[in-house]
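Translate sequence into structure tokens.
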Amino acid sequence: MQSILKQPFTNVQLELLKTFSHNLPESDLLDLKKTLASFFADKLINQANKVWDEQKWNGEKVDALLQTKMRKSK
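Result follows.
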């Protein structure tokens, strides 16, 4: 039986490893972390806004959701 080896890194991880094969000063590393966090936050906000628009959400729907008990009692 032939075993299939799975790549341990994603394409993004591999690209970052190639790009940053040297040490960064701590301040640059912090800036990079902030940039990455901002990138993913922006993508998430854009997705949420798209769903908001597609589902025609408004303040009333949000208030109703906040009042909804979604957990089941044990």
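Note: Residues 27-69 form one domain.
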